[in-house]
Amino acid sequence: MGDIQKDTVRNSLLRLMPRESFEAIAPHLEHVDLPRGTELSAPNETPLHAYFPESGIASIVARSPQGQHAEIGIFGRDGMTPTAMVLDAESDPYSIFMQVEGRGYRLASDQLKLALKDRACLNLLTRYSQALSVQGAYTSLSNAVHHIDERLARWILMCHDRTDGDEISLTHEFLSIMLAVRRPSVTTALHLLEGRKLIYSERGMIIVRDRSALEDFAKDAYGECEREYERLIGPLR
């Protein structure tokens, strides 16, 4: 597992973790590849590991008994899973998996439980759990009141927050899950954003051309949960 130094990790929560807590778990952190589709947590099952991504984007998806599904949140180097363990719950009903490949740290669940005995560590991860809850709430609001073009702009901005550079690996399939719409609707919305020169889209890739204008286009669909994360944890970018 190697000698992992706190100031070299790229996951925000690990970097902000109290030094004593980090040093206690560091020997147990395993640096792993996280290919697209990697399952980080299964619905209603007690996870064996916690994950702290350094790159890539993980998707939190809710599914109905009839198989309907929609994404309710994302995280990358800004977050971790499972928050259920932080909140003293053994599991949650969501499917959590990598939508954009990356790398990160894996930690045995029992080691995370030991770290959570440190009040400062528990407070940090509880604040993150609150920030993620707020993200889910504003996703629900956006799905209810915003046009698909604005919702797409919001999701691109959220992914851009968690990505180095301006290129984001996003497939139409992923976007259709994120927005809970059919793929033709995604294509139409992408063409609109391209026509305004906000993004450039090609197969499996979106390039942000004008972030400031993209934020203006998203209007109030973007920004509130980002401000909450910054208040509770720190800057996303």
From TrEMBL:
One of its GO terms (biological process) is regulation of DNA-templated transcription. InterPro entries: cNMP-bd_dom_sf, HTH_CRP, RmlC-like_jellyroll, WH-like_DNA-bd_sf, WH_DNA-bd_sf. One of its GO terms (molecular function) is DNA binding. Transmembrane segments: none annotated. Residues 150-216 form the HTH crp-type domain. It comes from the Bacteria. It holds the Pfam family HTH_Crp_2. Keywords: DNA-binding, Transcription, Transcription regulation. This is CRP-like cAMP-binding protein. It comes from Rhizobium soli.
